[in-house]
Amino acid sequence: MNANLLELKGVQTHIGAYHILHGVNLAVPRGQLTMLLGRNGAGKTTTLRTIMGLWKASQGSVTLNGQDITQAATPQIAGLGVAYVPETMGIFADLTVKENMLLAARAARTAQQIDEKRLQWIFSLFPAVEKFWNHPAGKLSGGQKQMLAVSRAIVEPRELLIVDEPSKGLAPAIINNMIDAFAQLKASGVTILLVEQNINFAKRLGDTVAVMDNGIVVHAGSMKQLADDEELQHSLLGLAL
């Protein structure tokens, strides 16, 4: 079995007339949490969307569990056990929290058919999801919506969870809750790829890290190595962690 669950090799992505990714090489080790860092506009979100098939790579390959998914449709990729939480969260504001969860639980036709043990585990990670179960999702706070977005992504077992900036705009207490939840998810065997701007979040959670700049990965290694090397941080990110 390949040590890497997900691999990108020489991935290039064009969006209309714009050439965004210029040959991304990225490895996401199985069972670990990989941080994808970089300045705004470096190509991080485009990389995630290319992995999910929302934008197609014009060159290079994306493999999951050794299977080439470069040209696969997004529903096919999701069917292989991949969940994606975009920066916008994608919450259905007019539906209740329960209805949002039910939409993601493809094996269930009613809320009663959602795996009860898994649901209770999600409630333990994100108590607000249980508290506001019958409330319209649009009425939730930003932090509660983010909790719902992640909960929805893991309502069924996933091999790979991809999340774009989960801590953006959240209060410190909610960020700590989110860090604890991702740590538990990783401990349960889920492989996680996170784009994140909150450096404390990255330092506390990351096993491995890839840093992007101008559409390519310019550094890859252990998160601890980057966190301990202030000179390297300055050269890659223009700041100290």
From TrEMBL:
<dbReference type="InterPro" id="IPR003593">
    <property type="entry name" value="AAA+_ATPase"/>
</dbReference>
<feature type="domain" description="ABC transporter">
    <location>
        <begin position="6"/>
        <end position="239"/>
    </location>
</feature>
<dbReference type="GO" id="GO:0005524">
    <property type="term" value="F:ATP binding"/>
</dbReference>
<dbReference type="InterPro" id="IPR017871">
    <property type="entry name" value="ABC_transporter-like_CS"/>
</dbReference>
<dbReference type="InterPro" id="IPR003439">
    <property type="entry name" value="ABC_transporter-like_ATP-bd"/>
</dbReference>
<dbReference type="InterPro" id="IPR027417">
    <property type="entry name" value="P-loop_NTPase"/>
</dbReference>
<dbReference type="GO" id="GO:0016887">
    <property type="term" value="F:ATP hydrolysis activity"/>
</dbReference>
<keyword id="KW-0067">ATP-binding</keyword>
<dbReference type="GO" id="GO:0015658">
    <property type="term" value="F:branched-chain amino acid transmembrane transporter activity"/>
</dbReference>
<comment type="similarity">
    <text>Belongs to the ABC transporter superfamily.</text>
</comment>
<keyword id="KW-1003">Cell membrane</keyword>
<dbReference type="Pfam" id="PF00005">
    <property type="entry name" value="ABC_tran"/>
</dbReference>
<keyword id="KW-0029">Amino-acid transport</keyword>
<dbReference type="GO" id="GO:0015807">
    <property type="term" value="P:L-amino acid transport"/>
</dbReference>
<protein>
    <submittedName>
        <fullName>ABC transporter ATP-binding protein</fullName>
    </submittedName>
</protein>
<dbReference type="InterPro" id="IPR052156">
    <property type="entry name" value="BCAA_Transport_ATP-bd_LivF"/>
</dbReference>
<keyword id="KW-0547">Nucleotide-binding</keyword>
<keyword id="KW-0472">Membrane</keyword>
<keyword id="KW-0813">Transport</keyword>
